[in-house]
Design goal:
6 strands, six-stranded mixed β-sheet
């Protein structure tokens, strides 16, 4: 499983989320579906490595304010399509507000993340971006990169929806989602993040609280999928009703991504 993780100098959580078996007895092609955190801090070597992957479409799931704060870097000569949202509420991202204003404990972090996942699939900007992403999967033969800020929540849900559509087993879907906890050095990064938070807020956050906030748990993804089923009846119905993924588009995506 860890062989799908790509290591970069300053580009976090970069992974291939293809190369899984499907219920139809086929396999999702490797080297076609990538996910990561943002690229604002990418080194020149990172950009060269990224360029070598031949990314044809980048889907940036961040808010406009996040993109302005941490603008993406692109490989030299990049000519691919970039899909991003113009929806801007004028405020900071909710996770930044939480980190700045709440007492960060393992329990409060988990409550915040669970509440976030209840809404994640239904926010207008996500509906737009998710729909455009699936249309792109049905229209392009080149590799696609999806990312948000950390590449774990918005990105994790979209990757899971992709796995569901392609017939990847639920256990593999969850394992891929949880791979963030391996791809990101949570224990190693937590002390630096804790110092940054204390400098910004004047309040100390425990090591365990920061690790819990930086990582993912299966219950978060389960919460999102449960909410989807509660509102639409099933994940398949959500894909069609909310995102416009009709049977014809499903077939095109499946054909283009088959190994």
């Amino acid at each position: 499983m860890t062989g799908r993780i790509h290591r970069f100098d300053a580009l976090d959580n970069f992974r291939d989320y293809g190369d899984y078996a499907t219920a139809a007895g086929r396999r999702v092609a490797p080297g076609r579906l990538f996910r990561s955190g943002h690229q604002a801090w990418a080194s020149e070597a990172d950009l060269d490595r990224l360029g070598a992957l031949g990314i044809a479409t980048v889907v940036d799931l961040r808010r406009p304010s996040e993109r302005r704060h941490q603008p993406s870097k692109r490989p030299p000569g990049f000519s691919g399509a970039v899909i991003e949202s113009a929806h801007d509420d004028g405020g900071e991202a909710p996770h930044l507000t939480f980190l700045r204003t709440a007492d960060l404990t393992p329990d409060s972090g988990r409550r915040f993340m669970t509440d976030t996942y209840r809404r994640l699939a239904f926010e207008p900007s996500h509906l737009e971006l998710f729909a455009r992403y699936f249309r792109a999967l049905g229209e392009t033969n080149g590799p696609v990169l999806i990312h948000c800020a950390a590449g774990k929540d918005r990105t994790g849900l979209l990757a899971a929806l992709t796995h569901h559509l392609l017939g990847v087993h639920h256990d593999d879907m969850v394992a891929d989602y949880l791979l963030t906890n391996t791809a990101v050095d949570l224990e190693g990064r937590a002390p630096g993040i804790a110092r940054q938070l204390e400098a910004q807020t004047g309040r100390a956050a425990s090591h365990d609280a920061v690790v819990a906030f930086l990582g993912v748990e299966a219950v978060y993804l389960d919460t999102a999928l449960t909410e989807i089923a509660a509102l639409h009846g099933s994940t398949d119905a959500y894909l069609e009703q909310a995102l416009g993924v009709d049977p014809a588009l499903r077939d095109r995506i499946g054909a283009r991504l088959a190994a």
